[in-house]
């Protein structure tokens, strides 16, 4: 739960989590095990096809929620189910309390329901004097501890067996062993009594099938079966987004949900309940059944063109499982009630701006969640959009405004970078891991930035080198036939910080008869602006770049910065979609964008010079491996360069750079970086290459600060020259 | 997919979640299997379901409701079948229950049921559980022995979608997909079996 009032308080809470060794170790193990489990579970299934089908079907349902609700209600009432619509969380709680009162229910057993967590149902019922027991083991544990869930599927993942044993000792008033198998059996026995006594059972629901009025429940423990069987009354509480037209839609989601959640083919139980079934506790042997649908903003969300896709979510929890930030800080700090990437978004809509405003800043934009989501939700982009919305509502911080103003004016921005070169001169020195660094951080940088050495701004930016002779050097001689026309997009870091890398990249493309241009009006790609929630400024620079290079003139737009590449390709069309005069150009532009490794390996088919036979490992930039789905080309290039590619553990996990993220959340950035460096050193390589100057900056900066073994850090282009 | 491939896949997936899959030739074999499973159970297997743990006095009181000899619940058996089955169980000192499961919430030894379908792709059995006695039996028993006729084994859930849909539309309906025993990983992600339902699932594959 989010209680922090200020960003500073939030950061202090994050620090506590980073210091929690048990949590860190558990989540680390989980993150690694989850990936293998999931991969195995989906073997033989066309996953992209399945995701596309789920997304399309969900979109269709979301577009006609009211219609599906009416259909469900009609069919349900025909078979004796009472159906309710709750507009707000409070209304849902009141409806359920009223059902309890009308049926003279005093004790309640519950099976897991995130929707009930959303409405804080237990508090409400307990305030009314009702006795509520959660029966899902994890939920029961956190209920006894008066906590919220820290994961949507494994709510008590933050707790150790010792904590559970202590808790159970209090509950049973007997000393408990910390053996997990025994603890589970204690829970079995303790909870069995609760079912036997309960008057009412409350369940959630994974599906509400409209054409048969069936509720679908997916559980491993089987508690939902007892909850819906033993007590006299059954109340199912579901978000409106769980409405689905037919059984087929539910079975389709069921193919993905357990596999994606925990790597299981299917959960132990999938239960389908249609209407009031036999119930020996009722006089007429017939269950009293109520279904409560919760709106709480969902109907409005369904009409929001940008955000309606969040209603596709099937609550598998995977977007937390793969999130490097969740892995560092856990669910209590990476969500309010819903956690993980989707939690950041839902918190804003279901629990308000105050709860969401710090959370949404804590996304490093690594794209892992997007890549794993079975419903194909573009989570990172939506998180940034919420960040932007909150800033629009609350006012933009000075920092972002200044950055926006500066970057919109290319001449000013580039002038400042050139000036920085002069200002930093007395402080610059050569590093041991490649490149030049600023030796003493200027005072403007906080102490917490000290975990990585900061690169110096280059003496001569790429654009000047280009004009001064590089252009002639690498282009076909006049009169020679050009096989294709290419525009280079450098991005700011390559232009002003590491021009030598981009020179290497340009040279690697020479000799293949490509006509290569470097359009001078190009500027920052705008991703840092989007990251800071400065959308109008991000739109502005996108426009400038679009005008700087007419995509109709080029066969390819090549960039050796993974972040730029993915931003140009995926976000430009989105940013300019409501400009009918430019939307087409933006799409054309996006189609021509290609990353450096794919271009030289797949298009030019460059056979690089024989390298030095070194052991070279690789760091896969988030925006390349997930953003652009490029995986083979860079590794093939390493081998083709005459070096030996040695794999590194967790090659595709974020290095912690994240542009301005590393400034704001330095400790998380550093924790990610240290892990990355450990893995690099352990690989035994003498060189680490990557496809993004931002990652070079982070990894090289961190390596430079390390004592002992230093691995050389390069952009992959530098391996080929 | 041939029938044999389907059987292999079913077995593989069911065993992955530690269900046992045993081919049998006749219903008589199934009766014998269920009875053996009951007799051969650890003398007091209830131990592993929690009676031996230090539970609270109220929870312990429920255990005491469990009457002595071993119990097999066979809520679907009727008339002649039931007679034949009871004859076999009596010889072994086992009590047969076809109703009154609510009086045995502390637990019974074995639930003996049939299945409506089997789904090879996930190793699941499908049981129409509209009968409350059947539903409870398959939750409170420590061992669930279920007979699946080969003819009812299909490849994917989609393959029985129409049949299931038809049953659902004849409400009330309570349909259960069961895959392996009841499980949890809620404490430190360590797998533990039998958190609420059966500790073991045995599927008897009956050749027609
Ligand atoms: S983009 Fe990365 S950091 Fe952001 S929520 Fe998704 S997984 Fe987490
Ligand atoms: S957003 Fe996607 S990955 Fe996250 S819980 Fe929902 S469905 Fe799963």
TrEMBL record, chain A:
This protein's UniProt keywords: 4Fe-4S, Electron transport, Iron, Iron-sulfur, Metal-binding, Repeat, Transport
Entries under Gene3D superfamilies matching the protein: Alpha-helical ferredoxin (1.10.1060.10), NagB/RpiA/CoA transferase-like (3.40.50.10420)
A molecular function GO annotation: metal ion binding
GO biological process, one term: lactate metabolic process
Occurrences of domain 4Fe-4S ferredoxin-type (ranges): 303-331, 354-385
Entry keyword annotation includes NAD: no
Entry keyword annotation includes Calcium: no
PROSITE patterns per record: 4FE4S_FER_1 (PS00198), 4FE4S_FER_2 (PS51379)
PANTHER family, sorted: LACTATE UTILIZATION PROTEIN B
Protein's recorded name: 4Fe-4S ferredoxin-type domain-containing protein
Organism: Megalodesulfovibrio gigas (strain ATCC 19364 / DSM 1382 / NCIMB 9332 / VKM B-1759) (Desulfovibrio gigas)
TrEMBL record, chain B:
Domain LUD: from-to ranges: 9-206
Highest taxon, organism lineage: Bacteria
PANTHER family, A to Z: LACTATE UTILIZATION PROTEIN C
Pfam families found in the cross-reference section: LUD_dom (PF02589)
Name under which the protein is recorded: Putative Lactate utilization protein B/C
InterPro entries assigned to the protein according to its UniProt record, in alphabetical order: FTHF_cligase-like_sf, LUD_dom, NagB/RpiA_transferase-like
């Amino acid at each position: 739960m989010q209680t922090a009032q200020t960003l500073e308080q939030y950061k202090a809470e994050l620090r506590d989590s980073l210091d929690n060794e048990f949590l860190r170790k558990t989540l680390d193990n989980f993150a690694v095990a989850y990936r293998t489990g999931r991969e195995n579970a989906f073997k033989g299934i066309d996953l992209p096809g399945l995701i596309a089908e789920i997304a399309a079907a969900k979109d269709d349902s979301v577009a006609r929620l009211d219609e599906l609700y009416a259909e469900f209600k009609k069919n349900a009432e025909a078979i004796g189910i009472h159906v309710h619509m709750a507009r707000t969380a409070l209304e849902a709680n009141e409806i359920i309390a009223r059902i309890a009162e009308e049926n003279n229910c005093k004790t309640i057993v519950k099976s897991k329901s995130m929707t009930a967590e959303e409405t804080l149902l237990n508090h409400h019922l307990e305030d009314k004097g009702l006795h509520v027991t959660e029966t899902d083991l994890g939920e029961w544990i956190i209920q006894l501890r008066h906590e919220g869930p820290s994961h949507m599927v494994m709510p008590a993942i933050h707790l150790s067996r010792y904590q559970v044993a202590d808790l159970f000792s209090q509950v049973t008033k007997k000393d408990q062993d910390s053996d997990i198998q025994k603890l589970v059996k204690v829970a079995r026995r303790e909870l069995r009594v609760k079912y036997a006594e309960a008057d009412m059972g409350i369940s959630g629901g994974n599906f509400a099938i409209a054409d048969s009025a069936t509720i679908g429940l997916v559980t491993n423990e089987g508690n939902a079966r007892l909850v819906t069987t033993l007590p006299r009354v059954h109340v199912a509480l579901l978000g409106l987004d769980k409405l689905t037209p037919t059984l087929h839609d539910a079975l389709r989601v069921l193919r993905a949900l357990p596999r994606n959640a925990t790597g299981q083919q299917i959960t132990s139980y999938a239960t389908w309940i249609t209407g009031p079934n036999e119930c020996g506790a009722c006089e007429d042997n017939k269950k009293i059944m109520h279904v409560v649908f919760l709106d709480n903003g969902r109907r409005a969300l369904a009409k929001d063109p940008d955000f309606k896709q969040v209603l596709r979510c099937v609550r598998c929890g995977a977007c937390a499982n793969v999130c490097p930030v969740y892995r560092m800080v856990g669910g209590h700090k990476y969500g309010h009630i819903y956690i993980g990437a989707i939690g950041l978004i839902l918190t804003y809509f279901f629990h308000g701006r105050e709860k969401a405003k710090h959370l949404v800043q804590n996304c490093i934009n690594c794209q892992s969640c997007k890549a794993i989501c079975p419903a194909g939700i573009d989570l990172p982009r939506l998180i940034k959009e919420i960040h932007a919305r909150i800033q629009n509502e609350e006012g933009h911080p000075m920092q972002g405004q200044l950055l926006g103003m500066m970057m919109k004016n290319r001449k000013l921005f580039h002038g400042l970078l050139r000036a920085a070169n002069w200002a930093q001169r007395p402080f610059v020195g050569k590093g041991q891991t490649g490149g030049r660094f600023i030796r003493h951080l200027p005072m403007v940088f906080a102490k917490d930035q000290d975990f990585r050495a900061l690169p110096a701004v280059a003496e001569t930016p790429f654009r000047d080198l280009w004009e001064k002779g590089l252009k002639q050097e690498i282009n076909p001689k006049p009169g020679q036939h050009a096989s294709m026309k290419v525009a280079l997009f450098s991005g700011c870091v390559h232009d002003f910080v590491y021009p030598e890398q981009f020179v290497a990249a340009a040279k690697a493309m020479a000799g293949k008869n490509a006509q290569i241009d470097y359009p001078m009006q190009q500027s920052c790609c705008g991703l840092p602006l989007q990251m800071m929630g400065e959308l109008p400024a991000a739109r502005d620079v996108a426009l400038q770049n679009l005008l700087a290079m007419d995509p109709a003139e080029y066969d390819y737009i090549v960039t050796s910065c993974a972040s730029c590449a993915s931003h140009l390709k995926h976000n430009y069309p989105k940013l300019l979609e409501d400009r009918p005069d430019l939307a087409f150009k933006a799409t054309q532009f996006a189609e021509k964008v290609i990353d450096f490794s794919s271009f030289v390996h797949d298009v030019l088919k460059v056979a690089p010079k024989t390298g030095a036979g070194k052991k070279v490992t690789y760091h896969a930039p988030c925006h390349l491996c997930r953003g652009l789905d490029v995986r083979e080309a860079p590794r093939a290039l390493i081998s083709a360069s005459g070096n030996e590619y040695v794999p590194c553990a967790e090659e595709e996990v974020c290095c912690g750079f994240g542009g301005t993220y590393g400034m704001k959340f330095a400790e998380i950035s550093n924790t990610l970086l240290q892990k990355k460096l450990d893995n690099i050193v352990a690989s035994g390589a003498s060189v680490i290459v990557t496809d993004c100057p931002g990652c070079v900056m982070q990894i090289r900066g961190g390596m430079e600060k390390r004592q002992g073994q230093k691995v050389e850090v390069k952009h992959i282009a530098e391996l080929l020259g | 997919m041939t029938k044999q491939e389907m059987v292999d896949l079913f077995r593989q997936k069911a065993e992955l979640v530690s269900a046992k899959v045993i081919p049998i030739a006749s219903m008589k074999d199934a009766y014998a299997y269920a009875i053996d499973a009951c007799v051969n159970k650890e003398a007091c297997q209830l131990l592993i379901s929690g009676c031996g743990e230090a539970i609270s006095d109220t929870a312990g009181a429920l255990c005491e409701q469990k009457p002595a000899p071993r119990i097999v619940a066979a809520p679907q058996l009727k008339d002649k079948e039931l007679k034949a089955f009871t004859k076999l169980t009596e010889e072994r000192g086992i009590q047969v229950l076809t109703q009154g499961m609510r009086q045995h919430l502390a637990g019974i030894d074995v639930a003996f049921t049939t299945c409506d379908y089997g789904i090879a792709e996930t190793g699941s059995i499908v049981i129409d559980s509209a009968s409350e006695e059947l539903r409870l039996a398959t939750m409170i028993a420590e061992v669930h022995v279920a007979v699946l006729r080969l003819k009812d084994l299909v490849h994917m859930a989609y393959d029985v979608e129409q049949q299931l849909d038809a049953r659902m539309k004849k409400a009330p309906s309570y349909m259960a997909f069961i895959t392996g025993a009841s499980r949890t990983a809620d404490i430190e992600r360590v797998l533990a079996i039998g958190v609420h339902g059966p500790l073991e699932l045995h599927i008897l594959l009956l050749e027609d």
